[in-house]
Amino acid sequence: MGTVTVDINGRPYSVGCADGQEDRVRMLARQFDEHVRQVGRDVGQVGEPRLLLMAALLVSDELADIRAQLNRLQTDYDHAQRDDTGKRAALALNNAAERIEKLLTETA
Q1: CA-CA 20 to 30 A from 84: which of 19, 59, 66, 92?
Q2: Cβ(38)–Cβ(51) under 8 Å?
Q3: Count of domains in the chain?
C-alpha cells in the first residue's frame, strides 16, 4: 500500500492509497485544495473543519449536478436509440411490403 503526503489549505496530510495510485491521489488532493481555497476566499477563514466541510459540500454539489446531467444524457440517448430502432423497423417493413407487392405483380 502506498502513502502520499498532500497539502490541503497549507497543511500536510498523509494519505494511504493503493500502489500505483499515488499520482491520482495527489491530483485529486490538488483539485480539492482548490475548492478549499476558493471557499476560504469567498467566506474567509471560518475554522478548518467548517472550511473543509463547506468545500466537501461544494464538491458533492458538483458531483450531483454531473450525475443529473449524465442521467439526462443517458435518457436522451436511450430515446434516440429507440427512435432509430423504430425508424429502421419501419423502413424494413416498407421494403418487405414493396418486395411482396412486386412479387404479386410479377406473378399476376
Answers
A1: 66
A2: no
A3: 1
